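Reviewer 2 asked us to include a model.

Predict the structure of this chain.
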Amino acid sequence: MSRIQYFVAASIDGFIATTKDDLAWLLEFDGFEGGKESYETFMAGVGCIVMGGETYAWLMEHEPGNWPYPSTPCYVFTRHEHVAPAGTDITFVRGPVQEFIQDFKDHAGGMNVWVVGGGNLAAQFANAGLLDDLILSVIPVVLGDGKRLLPLEGPTSPLELTASRTLGRGIVELRYTFTSPVPAG
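Predicted model (C-alpha cells):
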C-alpha cells in the first residue's frame, strides 16, 4: 500500500531553505557518509513524486537539462505556466492535494509517494490527514530564519518515532509516522 512520505533535510532550527531559497548551507554537506545509501534506499520505494512549483522552478534553474527523476512520474502543484523537459513524465496541477491523492497512488503502483517539497505543500498533505511519514535529516547548521520545515497553523498530535540514526558529519536521520490527522488550526 502506498504511503505519502515527506523526505527532507532541515537545519537544527527547522528550516529547509533560506528566505531566498538558498540551499548553499545544505549543499556543503553533499557526499556525507551514509547520505547516498539513505537516499538510494528511500528512492527504491518511491513510485511517484509530488512537488511544489517553487521546488520545480529551483530544480529547473539549478539543474538545467538534468531532470533528476527521469523514470518516476511527477506531479507539480503550481499556479504558473511551466514546460516540462522533453522525455519526462511531469503533470502540472492546481487545486487541493485531496483531489489528486488517488492519481498519485495509482501512478505509484503500490510504491510510495514522495512529497519533495516544499514545506507549504507538505503542510497541505498533513492538514488533510494524508501525510503518513516524515523522514527528516537534521543538518547541523542554524539558519535563524527561512522556509519552515512544516508550516502548520497548530500543533500536531504526537508523532511516533520509528527509527533514528546518526550519519556522517553530525547529521541525524529521524523517521516519524503521523499517528493521527493534524487537527485543523
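Residues 71 and 98 are 24 Å apart (CA to CA). The helical segments are 24-27, 35-43, 53-62, 101-108, 119-127. We have added this to the supplementary material.
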